[in-house]
Design goal:
Layout lengths: L2 H16 L23 H4 L13 H13 L16 H12 L5 H7 L6 H4 L3 E2 L7 E2 L13 H37 L10 H10 L8 H16 L8 H6 L2 H10 L6 H11 L8 H31 L5 E5 L9 E6 L4 H10 L2 H9 L5 E5 L1 H7 L3 H4 L4 E4 L6 H5 L6 E4 L8 H8 L2 E4 L10 E2 L7 H22 L10 E5 L3 H7 L5 H9 L4 E7 L10 H12 L2 E7 H8 L13 H10 L4 E5 L4 H15 L8 E5 L5 H12 L3 E4 L9 H13 L4 E4 L3 H18 L4
Parallel strand pairs: 4-5, 4-7, 5-6, 7-8, 8-9, 11-12, 11-14, 12-13, 14-15, 15-16
Antiparallel strand pairs: 1-2, 3-10
Helix pairs in contact: 7-9, 7-12, 7-13, 7-27, 8-9, 8-13, 12-13, 13-26, 13-27, 14-20, 23-29
The structure holds FE(4)-NI(1)-S(4) cluster.
The site of FE(4)-NI(1)-S(4) cluster (XCC) has 15 residues, from helix 16.
Cofactor: [4Fe-4S] cluster
EC number: 1.2.7.4
Protein name: anaerobic carbon-monoxide dehydrogenase
Length: 710
Amino acid sequence: MSDKDIQKSYEQSAERMRGDNKTFAADLTNEDYNDPNLHQDIHQKISVNYDNIEKSPSMEKVHQWQREHIKKDDQTKEGYPLNVIIDPAMREMYQVVHHAGMTNVFDRFSQQQPTQCKFCIEGLSCQLCANGPCRISKKAPRGVCGVDAHTMVARNFMYRHVTIGTSANIFHCHQAARTLKAAGQHPESGLKIRDPEKLKKYADMAGLDANQPVEKLAVAFADWVMNDIHAPFHVESKAVEAFAPTQRKELWRKLGLFPGGGYSEVAYAQTRCMTNFTSDPVEFLLNSVRLGIANEYQGLFLLNIIQEILMGTQEITMKQQNMGLLKENMINIVTNGHMPLLAHVAIDMASTDEWQQKAKAAGADGIQILGHVCEGQQLINYEGTHLQKGYGGQEGEWLSQEYLLATGVVDLFMFDYNCTVPTMPIFAKRFGTKLLSTHPVIKLQGTDTLDFLPEKMKEQAAKALDMAIEAFKQRKSENRPTYIPPHVSDCMVGFSTESVKKALGGSFQPLIEQIAKGNIRGIATIVGCTTARYGQGGSNIFKITKGLIENNILVLSGGCTSSVMEYTGLTHPKAADECGEGLKAVCKQLGIPPVLTYGACVDIGKMTHTAKELADALHVDTNKLPLVIGAPEYLEQKAVADACTAVALGWLVHVAPVPSITGSDVVVKTLTETTETLGLGKVVVEMDAEKTVQIYVDHIEKKRKELGLH
Ligand code: XCC
């Protein structure tokens, strides 16, 4: 067959499939692609004006405006997106990017309306086999294979959300364990074991000999973790056995939910999703809960422990957040993602006189590394990173990354998985930023990628710093215009099971007493992402959290929600004044804010740990606690896996926007009612902030009653 014949067969297929003899993408232009090589003339074409924007007022006034703004009902389509963007820096930079005509997340959300498909929104579309894609309607109540609406929705839920989210968290844990092993075997790697006591404690719980030399113990514990992750699904997980609450384990065994090795669990679950395999919808949902358990104990929980061993446990302190921390004459490195493993070695190095001198030799005042999204929320919390000279503070949430590059002063943007958007190469090219992926799991078009080699982290970190210095020199030599929005929030950070306990004088008893007295009615963990949706963009998180603290509910946050809490002032001790009387008094007495940031969305592992210790102190199972979980602006698959973790642990979990389950009443009823009757938790979906707060309050009061508290 000649090339011409092959071409012809493609054209004919395209014609058959969509009635046109070329691929659809042939109608798009170079501007519609993210490959930076297609944007040669981007500097001439896109003119950026930093003056033609409405500047945000001082932070104090911004806080006032935010509070008045969310009382009004105007976070919908009219006035979008400036009616949902409540971060003062992002408000400014959105205007810059929008006026320049560059693609950006909020404008893309608008472009996607109203084409977003209602079948997909409800979970009623399937693209698994070649008979499809199938969409369920009254006229066509089954897919071609015969699948009904309930199975389709349940299978989509597990396959598209829970398996991916679970494997991503387990993958993260796996990389952390590799790093811990390298720290034990290769001291020349720049890795340190900053918390050997924690290593001993958890190695001992794992049944290892904790009295061996620390380096050897690190290797043994890392191997133990990796072996458990890689075990078969039909062999019970040792990590779940070692770290999960006793009563929960009994329940999970009874319900057939006790997981085996994490990766194998994901493979098993995905196998069940193949066309014409499992078709019982409830099976998919229970399997999702089982994945939620692996997600926690072979993912979040262990990766948190390992990262604290490497970076040092949290310490409560005041730090700063937002774009105003960028400095025009500094070499600015922003590190993005969720695994600050290379980043923490880079911070160590950037903090040395040697590297600060190199920066000065390049004409800069110095070199600083700032964190962004969840990676940043971890760096701001760990003692081993946030006390360092080369650490510059926290930038923002995932929605702001394109706008961040548009400041023109980010010299290097390095990232691991996830939450680096695909358009970054275009922004990097337009604004002179160097991009560097630090793990091959994430490759962007036209962008350098490092192999993930923990043994070589020192060399790799040096490469990153050198790249940043070169980019800075280039920026200066071209004399490029820049603009840094001057906004900075002061925030109290560093909360974790240990640091909270320490602040309370060594035990959770004082907190339990406040809960028992009713000054604190209960605890809400408000976690996860922010979305670009109408009514969201940070606004929904802020509204709900305000409502909770006014009702004397203490809030723990993690993920991009923490950035929202930071730029709205809720992580400042002054926010105590906005609480109900009981919580206000407790916060004032302890000098803490009513929102305690635990860090990243992956730090949910620490929150569940705190909850477990509270349950232990009260001698009750975890599902008895006056505790609720919420992801008011969930975005991606890990959040859904985390919701399944919460259900496994017996908690009420609220998610918004509504996940794609509303196409099936069996699925909705199972997740929102039946699971609770089994001793598990349940899911709540509600888009209205005030109603959400009421649901939380009612649930907490119900749990208090069951505990005999008034
Ligand atoms: Fe991404 Fe974590 Fe979500 Fe933020 S919270 S949008 S996952 S960066 Ni993790």
